[in-house]
Design goal:
Length: 294
């Protein structure tokens, strides 16, 4: 469905970024976020005067391709774990703005919806409604996905996997520490090896691991910039990804040295797909919060 630009404009807070209709969220103390209708993708989060998300300078904004950076949503399939296009189709389609119904005002909260359509049923036959709510707080950003099976009561249950595929901006990925995953079971997708994480995650080269999500918050230590990352228990996996130098040169929508400036810390549901009976609903969220370094 094409973006309903007129309706979106009537709600205010809209702007065009790289040719794409977007919604600008503003917090009183100066923080802001930018959310594209395409993919319901957060493209920017400025907190404490600093951009916190990585958006590739070579990202493609053609209204069809996945946008490299920000917070893409993988739904209803994570990666290539199924017959659908990689990471599902939600990041390739235009979402529409709906009433948020939540806390906060229209300046700091936006809710976008994607329901099944001819386009989605060409890939996946299920009837669904997905809502992505982005809430900007003082030094925080919370992204919540709610999914409902809108099938008739005598319809079948269906399953999905998902990820909030957050690209965090870092000074130099080889200098960061990601704390909070110590003791978590992990599958290293590069080496195809299972193990348990010991200590903080440090990176040197390509990194692609699916962890059992930690019970508490993680902390990303990037020099003097600290970020707390929390996810709901319903998102039971955490993915940490960086393409490294060699793979990065093969990603057409990233500059060769782009990998240095980003680290994906993804709140995901992969190993145990969510199964929804007709009319049942599920939700999951990730929250990012700026911390004072100590
Ligand atoms: O290039 P994309 O389709 O956006 O996928 C980027 C990456 O997403 C996740 O982090 C996966 O764990 C990686 O295996 C994958 O390469």
């Amino acid at each position: 469905m094409p973006p309903d630009s007129a309706a979106v404009a009537a709600w205010g807070g809209t702007e065009i970024f790289q040719g794409q209709p977007c919604i600008r969220l503003q917090a009183p103390q100066g923080d802001s976020a930018l959310v594209a209708l395409h993919g319901a993708q957060v493209l920017s989060w400025v907190a404490g005067g600093r951009e916190r998300l990585y958006l590739s300078p070579q990202a493609v904004f053609d209204g069809q391709s996945a946008i490299r950076g920000g917070i893409p949503l993988c739904f209803p399939q994570f990666n290539q774990r199924g017959p659908l296009p990689k990471h599902g189709f939600a990041r390739n389609l235009a979402w529409r703005r709906v009433l948020s119904g939540g806390d906060g005002d229209a300046q700091s909260v936006v809710c976008l919806e994607l329901a099944d359509s001819e386009a989605t049923r060409a890939w996946w036959p299920e009837r669904f409604a997905a809502q992505l709510t982005v809430a900007l707080g003082a030094g925080s950003l919370r992204v919540q996905l709610a999914v409902r099976n809108t099938g008739d009561t005598d319809a079948d249950a269906w399953s999905f996997t998902t990820a909030l595929h957050t690209y965090l901006r870092v000074e130099n990925v080889e200098h960061v520490h990601l704390r909070g995953l110590d003791g978590c079971a992990r599958w290293d997708a590069v080496a195809d090896a299972r193990g348990v994480q010991r200590g903080a995650v440090r990176l040197a080269g390509e990194y692609d691991c699916v962890f059992q999500a930690p019970a508490g918050p993680m902390q990303l230590l990037d020099g003097a910039q600290w970020l707390q990352i929390t996810q709901s228990a319903s998102l039971s996996d955490t993915v940490v990804w960086n393409p490294g130098a060699e793979l990065c040169t093969r990603l057409a929508d990233m500059p060769p040295d782009g990998y240095r400036s980003m680290l994906c810390v993804e709140a995901a549901r992969i190993d145990q797909p969510v199964t929804l009976a007709p009319q049942a609903q599920w939700q999951g969220w990730q929250e990012l919060r700026v911390l004072q370094a100590s």
